[in-house]
């Protein structure tokens, strides 16, 4: 069995104001760095064997902060990036609603059928993200504990895949900044059984400014 700690990145300024960042490389803000440090402290006693991260800086810096003094390489993979929001990148919710009335609400209600204009569908995100996770898991057949840091939308699709849940339910999973999720992974075969042991644990940032 492998134990997967799947962690969302810390806060960015765009998170704070509600600007859709998607694949745009937006760094952590001061609060996001504090969140990553708090998350690292919460996981300081966990022995990680390997670390995988999205290559976007907000996820990579979160991974580096959690790693701390551990002598581990962080492998980055662009397939773990957030959903490509296409024409919605860099826009606020209100701006998107004004230009595409009702479509953003449909995206949250039916992520399985809505594709962002000139961007990605959630199925496309799941396909690429899971290929990255699967490749990484298959590099080692031993029992191990793995840290994966990436993005809220991406994590939701990965959890659906791991639990054999329709991607139509991906927004049923809350994912706050530096949320910790833990999955006991046994494989993806018909007789395998993966267990979601911890979901959206953000207790480590409850006392920080700007917690979401």
TrEMBL record:
<dbReference type="InterPro" id="IPR013078">
    <property type="entry name" value="His_Pase_superF_clade-1"/>
</dbReference>
<keyword id="KW-0324">Glycolysis</keyword>
<dbReference type="GO" id="GO:0043755">
    <property type="term" value="F:alpha-ribazole phosphatase activity"/>
</dbReference>
<dbReference type="InterPro" id="IPR050275">
    <property type="entry name" value="PGM_Phosphatase"/>
</dbReference>
<dbReference type="InterPro" id="IPR001345">
    <property type="entry name" value="PG/BPGM_mutase_AS"/>
</dbReference>
<feature type="binding site">
    <location>
        <begin position="109"/>
        <end position="110"/>
    </location>
    <ligand>
        <name>substrate</name>
    </ligand>
</feature>
<feature type="active site" description="Proton donor/acceptor">
    <location>
        <position position="82"/>
    </location>
</feature>
<feature type="binding site">
    <location>
        <begin position="8"/>
        <end position="15"/>
    </location>
    <ligand>
        <name>substrate</name>
    </ligand>
</feature>
<dbReference type="GO" id="GO:0005737">
    <property type="term" value="C:cytoplasm"/>
</dbReference>
<protein>
    <recommendedName>
        <fullName>Alpha-ribazole phosphatase</fullName>
        <ecNumber>3.1.3.73</ecNumber>
    </recommendedName>
</protein>
<dbReference type="InterPro" id="IPR017578">
    <property type="entry name" value="Ribazole_CobC"/>
</dbReference>
<dbReference type="InterPro" id="IPR029033">
    <property type="entry name" value="His_PPase_superfam"/>
</dbReference>
<feature type="binding site">
    <location>
        <position position="58"/>
    </location>
    <ligand>
        <name>substrate</name>
    </ligand>
</feature>
<dbReference type="GO" id="GO:0009236">
    <property type="term" value="P:cobalamin biosynthetic process"/>
</dbReference>
<keyword id="KW-0413">Isomerase</keyword>
<feature type="active site" description="Tele-phosphohistidine intermediate">
    <location>
        <position position="9"/>
    </location>
</feature>
<dbReference type="Pfam" id="PF00300">
    <property type="entry name" value="His_Phos_1"/>
</dbReference>
């Amino acid at each position: 069995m492998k134990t997967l700690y799947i962690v969302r990145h810390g806060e960015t300024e765009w998170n704070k104001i509600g600007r859709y960042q998607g694949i745009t490389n937006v760094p952590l803000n001061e609060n996001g760095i504090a969140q990553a440090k708090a998350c690292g402290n919460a996981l300081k006693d966990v022995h990680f064997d390997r670390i995988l991260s999205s290559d976007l800086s907000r996820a990579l810096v979160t991974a580096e902060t959690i790693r701390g003094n551990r002598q581990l390489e962080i492998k980055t993979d662009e397939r773990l990036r957030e959903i490509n929001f296409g024409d919605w990148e860099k826009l606020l919710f209100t701006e998107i609603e004004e230009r595409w009335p009702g479509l953003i609400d449909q995206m949250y209600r039916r992520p399985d059928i809505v594709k962002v204009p000139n961007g990605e569908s959630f199925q496309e995100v799941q396909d690429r993200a899971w290929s990255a996770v699967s490749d990484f898991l298959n590099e080692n057949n031993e029992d191990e504990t793995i840290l994966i840091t990436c993005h809220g939308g991406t994590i939701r699709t990965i959890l659906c895949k791991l639990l054999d849940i329709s991607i139509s339910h991906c927004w049923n999973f809350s994912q706050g900044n530096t949320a910790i999720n833990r999955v006991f992974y046994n494989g993806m075969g018909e007789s395998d059984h993966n267990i979601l042991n911890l979901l959206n644990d953000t207790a480590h940032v409850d006392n920080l400014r700007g917690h979401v």
